[in-house]
């Protein structure tokens, strides 16, 4: 074993999106990637989405979307305070990606220069106003510079149109919008529909789960006034991974350093993750730091870390009654329908009405989660000694 002990595991457990060069580490996302490659290659135009909970691997999947004979650019949105700032960031990021392109570089540089000057004017005004102070600032509101939303939208449309004309088929991937509220994302997309719905342009957005849920309701006609199907051609939902997938991911990452980890550690980390790769990596990462001088990461180390972390986080806002704690212990290994949970609770002294109430409370607090239509105790709490 390495003289550094388990500290050698830290780089391998760092959470970051995979790229094509990391394809050996990819686990159970081939179906979604293949579908996205096919639809973006053959769809004449339209807006698509990729949705899923945070940390599930949306950026990784998007990094592998490279359809044949299609020009692809990916932009990350970091300025998400308002609809205007999202538009400005989108225009600037796309222009930056295209400014050295032989076909559209000139237009891209013009757009980048314009947006840079526009933002500088706004920030300069804001700074000057703050330095003057409210009592000394005597001016009419109409003189204050504002986001020129329509001009920015027009320039974005021009840049996209020039790119489509030059490349024939253009796939624009917009990542990081899933960090925003559903309403804000939909407002941005709705405001840009004219610029985005043109022949030979396909746009893929990363989306918050709430939009996927509403999209499904619209498709199934459960929403009387829903219209998301008019916005999105399709939304791909990334399901949580299976426990076996999480273990496979960890084995691939740890590779020749597997001897530094007790076998049961991977089992516990997979359970803790609830199918989210980021959560598995995070809890192992924390446990390595907790036991940095050990020569091997053992199950007892990981269980101690989980207990410490979960109890600390619970103390900041989520409390459990004695009945709820008892239910969590009773249901630790359960996986099945609601009726089975109620039966177990009633057999262990819960009155029927109490069993129903405890069930609803545990679902609301996400101690009970749904997987494949069945309920189970979240792995975050399965190993905690309440």
Keywords:
386 residues, alpha/beta, Rossmann fold, Helicase, Ruva Protein, domain 3, Arc Repressor Mutant, subunit A, 3 domains, five-stranded parallel beta sheet, 52% helix, 10% strand, globular
Describe the structure.
- This protein is of the alpha/beta class.
- It has three domains: 29-237, P-loop containing nucleotide triphosphate hydrolases (Rossmann fold, 3-Layer(aba) Sandwich); 244-314, Helicase, Ruva Protein, domain 3; 322-382, Arc Repressor Mutant, subunit A, CATH 1.10.10.
- The chain is 52% helix and 10% strand.
- It is built from 17 helices and eight strands.
- It has helices at residues 10-13, 30-42, 58-63, 83-98, 105-132, 149-167, 182-191, 193-196, 209-219, 243-254, 263-273, 277-290, 299-314, 322-330, 338-347, 352-364, 379-382; strands spanning 46-51, 71-76, 170-175, 201-207, 234-237, 335-336, 368-371, 374-377.
- The protein has a five-stranded parallel beta sheet, with helices on both faces. A three-stranded antiparallel beta sheet has the order 6-8-7.
- Strand 7 (368-371) and strand 8 (374-377) form a beta hairpin.
- Helix 12 (277-290) packs across helix 13 and helix 14 (322-330) crosses helix 16 (352-364).
- The protein is globular.
- The model is unreliable at 125-145 (pLDDT under 50).
């Amino acid at each position: 074993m390495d003289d550094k002990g388990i500290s050698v595991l830290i780089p391998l457990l760092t959470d970051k999106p995979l790229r094509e060069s990391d394809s050996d580490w990819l686990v159970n996302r081939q179906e979604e990637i293949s579908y996205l490659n096919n639809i973006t290659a053959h769809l004449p135009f339209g807006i698509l989405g990729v949705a899923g909970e945070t940390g599930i691997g949306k950026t990784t999947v998007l990094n592998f979307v490279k359809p044949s004979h299609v020009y692809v650019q990916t932009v990350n949105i970091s300025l998400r305070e308002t609809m205007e700032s999202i538009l400005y960031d989108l225009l600037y990021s796309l222009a930056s990606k295209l400014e050295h392109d032989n076909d559209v570089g000139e237009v891209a540089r013009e757009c980048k220069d314009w947006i840079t000057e526009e933002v500088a004017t706004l920030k300069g005004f804001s700074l000057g106003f703050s330095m003057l102070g409210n009592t000394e600032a005597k001016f009419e509101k109409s003189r204050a510079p504002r986001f020129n939303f329509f001009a920015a939208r027009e320039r974005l449309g021009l840049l996209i149109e020039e790119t489509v004309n030059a490349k024939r088929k253009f796939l624009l991937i917009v990542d990081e919008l899933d960090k925003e509220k559903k309403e804000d994302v939909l407002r941005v997309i709705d405001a840009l529909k004219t610029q985005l719905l043109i022949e030979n342009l396909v746009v893929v957005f990363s989306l918050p789960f709430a939009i996927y849920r509403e999209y499904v309701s619209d498709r199934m006609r459960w929403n009387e006034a829903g219209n998301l199907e008019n916005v999105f051609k399709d939304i791909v939902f990334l399901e949580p991974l299976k426990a076996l997938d999480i273990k496979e991911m960890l084995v691939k990452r740890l590779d020749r350093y597997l001897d530094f980890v007790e076998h049961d550690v991977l089992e516990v980390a997979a359970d803790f993750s609830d199918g989210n790769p980021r959560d598995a990596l995070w809890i192992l990462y924390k446990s390595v730091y907790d036991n940095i001088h050990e020569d091997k990461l053992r199950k007892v180390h990981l269980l101690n870390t989980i207990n410490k972390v979960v109890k600390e986080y619970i103390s900041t806002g989520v409390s459990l009654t004695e009945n709820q704690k008892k239910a969590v212990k009773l249901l630790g290994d359960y996986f099945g329908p609601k009726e089975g949970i109620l039966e177990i609770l009633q057999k262990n002294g819960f009155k029927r009405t109490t069993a129903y109430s405890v069930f609803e409370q545990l679902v609301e607090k996400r101690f009970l989660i749904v997987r494949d239509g069945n309920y189970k105790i979240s792995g975050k709490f399965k190993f905690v000694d309440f």
